[in-house]
Amino acid sequence: MKKTIQRANERGTANHGWLKANFSFSFANYYNPEKVNFGALRVLNDDVIEAGMGFGTHPHNNMEIITIPLEGALKHKDSMSDKWITLETGEVQIMSAGSGLMHSEMNNSTTEHINLFQIWIVPNKNEVKPRYDQGKFSISARNNKLQVLVSSIDDNVANESLKIHQDAQISRIDLSENTEFEYELASEEKGVFVMVINGEVEIASEKLTKRDAIGIEQTNLFKITANKKSEVLFIEIPMRF
Description:
Layout: E1 2-6, E2 12-15, E3 19-23, E4 41-49, E5 54-60, E6 64-71, E7 73-78, E8 85-88, E9 91-96, E10 101-107, E11 114-121, E12 131-136, E13 147-152, E14 162-164, E15 169-175, E16 179-184, E17 190-198, E18 200-203, E19 206-209, E20 213-217, E21 221-226, E22 230-238
Parallel strand pairs: 13-14
Antiparallel strand pairs: 1-20, 2-3, 3-4, 4-11, 5-10, 6-9, 6-11, 7-8, 7-10, 9-12, 13-15, 15-22, 16-21, 17-20, 17-22, 18-19, 18-21
Binding site for Fe cation: 58, 60, 103, 105
Domain Pirin N-terminal: 10-121
Family: Belongs to the pirin family.
């Protein structure tokens, strides 16, 4: 097993007043040659956007973009429909930028901030037709069991996950205190980037607390132990792409 530890306070940061961001990987004006990507995972941003603010219209292409609100609500508009769509905590959004599109993301509230994860995954197909989707995921369905949020569009497994153009899987679990869970990777060709949303866990003899992360590769199974009630995000991706 190979592991890469990333502590919460080691992430890149940006403070634009209306936007406070933490970058797990090089992004915008933050560049660290040792933190460019983890396999096909290119971006994991932990953003806090103030009330009424957001990202104006801008372009994307050939990237799979996933948004997970943790607190508050977002509104989205893109060149595929040109109408505002609300995305609330408990929902997940995917956007396959493909051959190119324009979009805007704004805080849907004029009084409360929003906190969200923005994830970019390099696709395994370029210049595809752009597509958008979102879905709601029950909190109770991930109580001490894995809840798959996002998986490959080529995956024929029947579940409620949203689909992207990459052999990847994004999932969450909420663990009770003193609970153990075994995570099984699809193959040793994959790696998984594990982010502790809240709580305290142990993985591979490493204690991880809120917003700490660990990259695990060159194994097909590892154990996670929750020392406290914990929420955990898993991003499993090809390490070669």
